[in-house]
Amino acid sequence: MNKSNDEYKKYVERHAVPSPIVSNCVKAFLVGGTICCMGQVLFLLYKNVLEMSEINARALVSATLIFGAILLTGFDVFDDIAKFGGAGTLVPITGFANAVVAPALDTKAEGWILGVGAKLFTISGPVILYGTLASAVYGTVYYIVMLIMR
Amino acid sequence: MDIFLGCLKAFIVGGIFCVISQVLIDKTKFTPARILVGYVVMGVILTAIGIYEPIVKFAGAGATVPLTGFGYTLAKGVEKAVDEIGILGVLSGGITATATGITAAIVFGFIAALVFPSHPKK
Fold it and tell me: Which of A2, A65, B16, B27 is the most buried (most CB within 10 A)?
C-alpha cells in the first residue's frame, strides 16, 4: 500500500480518536470561572467588610488563592482537580502557586539548597524573569513617552 | 445583586481566559510553563496599550486572578513608580507591586515543602 505523506496524514486524521477538545474547554471554563468567582467574592469581602483599598484587597485575594492552592497541593488533591479542570486550574494564580510548590515537594530528597531551594523556581523563575523584563521595558517606554509629552 | 452580577462577570471572563489556554494546549505544542510565561507577558503588553484596564474594570477578579492579571499588576506598578520617582521606577515598580503574590508563593511554598511529604508520581 503506497501512500504519499499527505494521504497518509489524512488517513491518520480520519481514524484518530476525536480529540476531546470541546469537553476540555467546557471543563476549563467551568473550573476557571469558579476560581475567578471565588476571587471576586473574596475581593468584595476584603474591600467592603475589612475596608481595604482595592489594590490591597486584590493583593490579599492573590495571597489567599495561592495559600489555598498550595494547601491542596500539599494534601495531594490539586492534581486531581487539575486533571479535570486542565487550563481552568493552570491559568488562575492557583496554577502559578501549584507550579511553585509541586516541583519543590518532589525534590526534597535532593536537599534544601539545590533541591527545594532551586526547584521552587523551576517554573516561577521564568514567569518572574519574563514578567519583570516586560515591565522594565514598558517602564522605559512609559518614562520616555512622559518626558516627551510634558 | 451586585455580588451576583460581579461574580457572573468574573466567572465568564475568567472562564474565557482559561478556554483560550486550553485551546492552545490542545491544538499547539504549548507546555503549561510556556502558557504561564506567555500570559504574564501578554498581561503587561495588553495593559501597556490600554486594553487590559477596561477588562479589569468590567470583570474584576475575572481579569486579575488569571495570570494576565499578574502582568497587569506589574505594568500598573511600573507606571505608578515612574510617575512618583522617575527613571528609577523602571527598576522598582514591577516587583514592588507584585511583592505580595511572589512572597506569598515563596513563603507558603517553602512551608509546604517543610510540612508535607513528597508525593509518589501518580
Answer: A65
